[in-house]
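Prompt: Have a read of the protein record below and flag anything odd:
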Amino acid sequence: MIFSNSRYVASVATKDNVSVPIAVKGARYTAQRTTTIISKYGDTFDTIAARIFNDSTQYWKIAGLNPYVRFPDQIPIGTVLVIPLP
């Protein structure tokens, strides 16, 4: 399921006459206003989103602004992260 606020868009792929729904990366996320935070022990994009937006499913906004974080479930302590303001 692809949510309306997702950075992915729904598409359909066809192989051997079988249609399969897929997610295709949409436009890169941008924010009009941002701030920065320094990650601490245990931070992940979804825990930060829960703290800032009160909604962990909004993690993709943080991920979109921090593409250099290669493993979002293991963000090194002290990493400077760009955070969109709600």
Q: What stands out?
A: The first strand starts at residue 8 and ends at 15. The domain at 29-84 is CATH 3.10.350.10 (Membrane-bound Lytic Murein Transglycosylase D; Chain A).
